[in-house]
Amino acid sequence: MEIVQDQHTALQELKTALRHSLVYGVGNMLSKAIGFFMLPFYTHYLTPENYGVLEILDLSMSLLGMFLTMGLIAAVLRRYAAARTNHDKNAVISSAFLFVLATGLVTFSVGCVFVPAVSKLMFGPGIPPLYLFLSFATLVCTYMTLVPRTYLRALEKSTAFTVVDNLGLVAMLSLNIYFIAVAKLGVLAILLSSFIVGVSQLLILSTWASRRVGLHFNAASLWQILRFGVPLTFSNLGLFALNFSDRFFLKRMTDLSTVGTYAVSYKFAYMMNFLVVQPFFVMWQARMYKVHAQPNYERIFGQIFRLYALLLTFLGLGLSLFSPEIVHTMVRSSFFAGQAIIPIVVLAYVFWGIGFYGQTGMFLTNHTRMIGILGAAAAMLNLPLNYLLIRRDGMLGAAWATLLSFAALALGSFALSHRVFPMHLGTARVALGIVSGILIYGFSTWHAPTSLVAVLLEKAGLLVAFPVLLWQFRIIAADERHLIRGLWKRGLARFSPTRSPVPKKDEALQVVSAVAVDEGTN
Predict the structure, then answer these.
(1) Alpha-carbon distances, residue 338 vs 34, 40, 57, 333 (angstroms)
(2) Cβ-contact 401, 261 below 8 angstroms
(3) 271 contacts 32 by C-beta, under 8 angstroms
(4) Contact 167, 91 (CB under 8 A)
(5) Cβ neighbours for 178, distance < 8 A, ≥ 6 positions apart
(6) How far apart are CA 129 and CA 343, in angstroms?
(7) Do 381 and 400 touch, CB atoms closer than 8 A?
(8) Using CA atoms, how far apart are residues 106 and 286, in angstroms rounded to an integer?
(9) What is the pLDDT of residues 444-494, one digit of tens each?
(10) What is the rounded CA–CA span in Å between residue 428 and residue 133?
């Protein structure tokens, strides 16, 4: 019976993780799908140089945002999970919210003074300072909505979180279409749309959060939040360097057109982050503490890790295989040169997604300082790699610098986390799965049929072969197979027209009982 209960708990936790990750993922998928299919529109009206300006503005604001946020998202989620009563939980949210509002207003007031000088330093006199002002104002609005958004995640209201984001996206894209195609505002159209949506979301989310938790300040709660979160600033800065510093090197060593071409192709590979890693990240930052409260948490951690990592590898393989056809369909020929970076960056984000999970032990034991040091070390590695490889190979060098840095970050995350919170996650089998995916992709580049139909059929066959190999060679182990079968049976039962009205918990126990019997007979 203990085996059955363990399987039931694992199945329930996996189902919960999948449900929230899918909601976040579908939300990201919708947002990215809309943006993805808008690429022909954007690349028609905007030049690679326009994209270069937008990319530098976006990255500059992201860098400033790293200093502002100070790891507050992870810290608020951690303190909220640790709070015992609703009053204490509300104090965590309210104190963080008031802190963010105050620091946001001060930052905006001081920053506006320096906008003209900084704009001239970044772009010269040819780019209006209004561009930087709108980017900066949008950043401050986004920062001040950080706590209400995090509160939605703490409540595990994944649907509400997704709806807010996608309504904002639809509004922004609608404004983009009008400002670009009708008003002919060019780069200003993108910046103005983001600013309008940012202000609107700030007003709505701030009103909702303040009414729900009240406005009262607790210095002790804020101190605990800052003590947990501030070390993560270094990790965030490291991640910024890993993700985006290559654009600054490309700008210095090449030109804005190369930056724009690289940025467009990078967006395709970045889909891995938006569609898989970030949805899981958003869910797991809050969920890991609840899983840790389970008596069989180590087994659940391992099962979720292996299934997540292998799914991430499968999706990365699919995106890499079909990237040439996707790029040639979606963008005009002046952007084709960047296609070669996509498989390299996709693999980098496979390592990033896996490496993030490897930090679980450090989060659970409050060793955020180690995460900060690790992020800073990865950045220290990435910067010279960017300089050396971009100088030699341009865009391809930038992609390889990203891959090598993320791989090092993943290895470091598992090593340090194991020191403070040892867990047996099955990393060897995951590594074997990644190697299998790399070999399959390598075969697709070596053997390329001449006709488009044959190419698509071969790539589809290679993609299907990946999970078959995982299953047949038992890289997916018995317990994961049982969980997959259990989820499959529950999914079929949910949509079956002859489904009996069995309570959900009893139904789950029936499934895992069958799994346990099956495990015993094997």
Answers:
(1) 21, 16, 21, 10
(2) no
(3) yes
(4) no
(5) none
(6) 37
(7) no
(8) 30
(9) 888 777 788 888 999 999 999 999 888 888 888 776 777 677 666 665 555
(10) 49
Q: What angle do CA 503, 508, 514 make, to 5 degrees?
A: 130
Structure tokens at 333: 């020929």
Please tell me the distance from the alpha carbon of residue 269 to that of residue 284, in angstroms, as a whole number.
22
Q: What tokens does 473 get?
A: 């060679």
d(CA 30, CA 27): 5
Would the pTM of this model clear 0.90, i.e. be above it?
no
CB 437 within 8 A of CB 317: yes
Q: What is the spatial distance between Cα 376 and Cα 378, in angstroms, rounded to a whole number?
A: 5
Taking the CB of residue 143, how many other CB atoms lie within 10 A of it?
23
Rounded Cα–Cα distance for residues 149 and 508 (Å):
32
Q: Which residue has the tokens 């101190």?
A: 223
Q: Quickly count: other Cβ atoms within 10 Å of residue 189's Cβ.
A: 22
Question: How many helices (DSSP H) and strands (DSSP E) are in the chain?
Answer: 22, 0
Pull the structure tokens for residue 480.
Answer: 């994961």
Tokens of 290: 């609840």
Amino acid at 178: Y
Whether residue 24 contacts residue 274, with contact meaning beta carbons closer than 8 Å, is answered with no
Cα separation of 275 and 379, whole Å? 24
Q: What is the DSSP letter of 72?
A: H
Give the least confident one: 47-56, 224-233, 268-277, 290-299. Answer: 47-56
Burial of 451 (0-12, 13-18, 19+ CB in 10 A): exposed
| C-alpha distances out from residue 439 to 185, 263, 444, 498, Å | 47, 27, 9, 44
How far CA 465 is from CA of 99, 406, 418, 433, in Å, comes to 52, 27, 33, 12
